[in-house]
Structures are given as structure tokens and as C-alpha cells.
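Form 7-S
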Amino acid sequence: MEYIRTEQLKKKFRRFDENGEEAGSTYALTGVDMTVEAGSFVAILGRNGSGKSTLAKHFNALLTPSEGSVYIEGLDTKDDKNVRAIRSGTGMVFQNPDNQMVSSIIEEDVAFGPENLGVESREIARRIDESLKRVNMSAYIHHAPNRLSGGQKQRIAIAGVLAMRPKCIILDEATSMLDPQGRADIMDTVRELNAAGITMIMITHFMEEAAHADKVFVMDGGRVIMSGTPREIFARRDEVMAAGLRLPMVSELACRLKEEGIDIELPILTEEELTAAVLQAVD
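Output:
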């Protein structure tokens, strides 16, 4: 069952000169056709300026198409009467965790979304407790956000989205400002939420994160140039590199070992796969 479908999606933005005068327009998206299945974990990759963040903002109607269409659970994002339902079901977590904090206390921060949806106060309290528990942050309910690490702040941002009872969560470069431990913590949370049935869409430039997805879309020049499973995508090394990306570190190491004459089967996505392949090759 599909959750998101785009049909020849194009997005045009006006350009302005240094005097604020309109100086033409440019397309950030140039005809995107894609489908995201409900309950799946999708990664969207692309170099800076490829259009991936612009695409993500169409998934909860923060942006609407200049041409073409976007449907969320069959609802057309261009129809104003659908916007509330779309945004209630599809939440976003952005790059900078500090920009997402709206209160001086974690409890109030997580409550912000459901309060704006008009949820009854007793139900809000229950959602706060449940959402913080799901991201392993219950102990911090009365803390101030400025006392948390970047990874902890992002988990609080995810809790705030969870409190709105979403069917889908979009992480738009949400791990890009985190240290390795913070990224690992977010990935653990992503996998746990996806296992619970929430559709997860991850916009990322970390190939190691994309390797865990069910499906990967690669963007360049405002369009999708590749799609498939991580194994299918990272088997196309030259095309991935031509798109300004790289393979996951373990996959690149496996390619170099093969080039040095070690007989291993590519692609390899995990350290465990690489260890097993090398041991078999030298046995």
C-alpha cells in the first residue's frame, strides 16, 4: 500500500538580484515520479542542491507543486482542505535541533504539537509520557533543552512529532550536525519506530545510514536518477560517484580489496559481511 506518490512533480522558484528585483526563475525539481510504500524505510540521497530537501517539504505540504502532483494517502497536497490531515499524519525533523525547540522545558516542547491540534490535556500528558519513552528520553521530561546533547535534542524533536500520532516521519538531514554517537542513537530510534509500523523517510548524506533502508532514491539536478534497494544502488559504484556521492565505507573497502585481487562478491554493506567474505576468500 502506497503512502506517498508523486507524478511529474516540478517546483519552480523565483530568483531575485541584489536589488531585490525579480531576475527570472529556476526549477529545483524537474519531474519527479516516485512512490513510498506505507511502513517502509526510505533513504533519499543526493549532493547539495540536488533537490532532496525541496522534495521532502512536498511530503507534508510545506511546499506544493508548481507542476505535477503529490498525493499523501491519496490526498492531493494542492487541495487546501487536505493540508491539516496531511500535516497531522506526516511529521518532519529538521537539520538543526536548536531551531526546533519551542519551550524551555522538554515536557512543554513535546506538548506543543498536540496542543495545536486541540488534543485534550489528559490525552496530551499521556502522549508526552509515551513519546518520550519511545525515544528513551523519559528521564529528561523536566529538563531544559539547552542541557542536552545534539543527539538528545533530535530525539526530543522526534518525540514531539510522535506526540502528534504520525503515520510517517521525515528526517531532513537530521543527523548532519551530530557526532557519531548521536547519529547512532538516532538510527536506533529510526529502526525501532519503523519496526513499529511508522513510515520513515531519511534525507541524508551519510551512506552508512542509507544502507539500512528498504529502498534508496538518488537525486541529481532536481530529479530521481536511481532507485532500488541499498544493495542494488551501491552495486553501481561508478554511477553513485558520478552523482557526487560515495559508497558506504565498508562497501568501498570491499571494492578496493577486490581490486587488489581478493576474491569477494560485491556489493558488501556491513562489517559482518566483509569479515565473512574475506575469511572465506583466504581460507
